[in-house]
Fold:
Amino acid sequence: MPFDWNLVGVSVITVFVSELGDKSQIAAIALGGRTSYPKAVFLGNASTLVLASFLGVLLGEGTAQILPAQIVKGIAAIGFALMAIRLLWPNAESNG
Structure:
């Protein structure tokens, strides 16, 4: 089984950048600042990220077995576009 180091690098950079400033990182900062066991906070956060990534890869692999890659990419693109539009759309609650 060949190993693609380029794909590993892209994955690391993508996840690292997307997780910066994430609510989970803010929670890690808050928990790490309040405890005398920062290693436990690190272990908990790291294991959670590994588990979430593992489930994402399994879901992606399963989806790839059912749907063609172009359809999966299209669904992802539409989903991200909808999230972007929602973030830019004025919120009636925040206008007050």
